[in-house]
Amino acid sequence: MGTSAAPAADAAYRLTAIGCRAGAPADGRTRQLRASLLDEDDVIVAVSRTGRGAERLAAVDAARSREAKIVAIDQRQVTILRTARCPAQPRRARTRTRRRAGG
Length: 103
Prior knowledge:
Blueprint: H1 5-17, H2 28-36, E1 43-47, H3 54-65, E2 69-73
Parallel strand pairs: 1-2
Helix pairs in contact: 2-3
């Protein structure tokens, strides 16, 4: 799970605390197995620094094949996780830019 392990475990803990069924399996095969048990009423949140981990992509594919909703969280604008594997394109966050005085 790499550097995404801590944020994923924290999110699962917080979701469980408010009454949601959530988990953050550390093992790639377990993630894929749990994703294959989801259905159209479920959501998978894929947390990845690079968006390219093969085991994570396999879990997302398994969830997508079961028609689960997919939320991809990573640090890059374009990744395999966001584009090739997920049917919906992410919305870009709106950012404000400051203009310098006189410019």
